[in-house]
Amino acid sequence: MDNETRYVWYASYGSNLLEERFLCYVQGGTPAGTNRNYSGCADKSLPLKNRNILIYHELYFAKESDTWSKGGVAFIKINSAKWTKTFGRMYLVTEQQFTDVLKQEIDFSGELPVDFEFIKRKGSKIVKEDSWYGNVIFLGIQDGFPIFTFTFQDNTQKINKPGKEYLTTIIRGLMEAYNFSSDEIVAYLSDKKGIVGNYSNSELKSFVISGIQTVGDK
Question: CB atoms < 10 A from the CB of 42, how many?
Fold first, then answer.
């Protein structure tokens, strides 16, 4: 490991649970189920490792994503709550790779300063006002490296139903990272805002089957 390169964990909780999806942010490409091509990071080196993480912030689905056919996408609330557990997956990347991933998430070009030390001290910082994922949050330390994720700057977004392709990508990520059963995945997703009242448990289970079939086709 280069002693002059600073590494951080990027913690994901939405579609980037699926490693092949996240690697499009690193190496470039068009993820399955989307209509958007990503340029990737300036440094296209693969993450040094990945690891599961429990994030104690409530998961919900909101906004209308052009990338995902106007469906809602995953966010976490800005305040932590020990009663809620969001299943995440984190990747060990350089600080610059984290910043490059963030820039792609908020569709921003140019310089985007991310003061990691400030965020560690204060717990969070809005690095770009009114951007979907412009609020960087510090989640702790693992193996000596700080953990960061990002979400919206407040909890006032309009809840929106996520599309099948997006949910299937998350489901594949949960299966890949956690080896969850279909019942465990349905139980996890069924009460999330944006899903509850919009999808029945049987519909969610059909998405799990679709995810299994997608993996089997590879």
Answer: 10
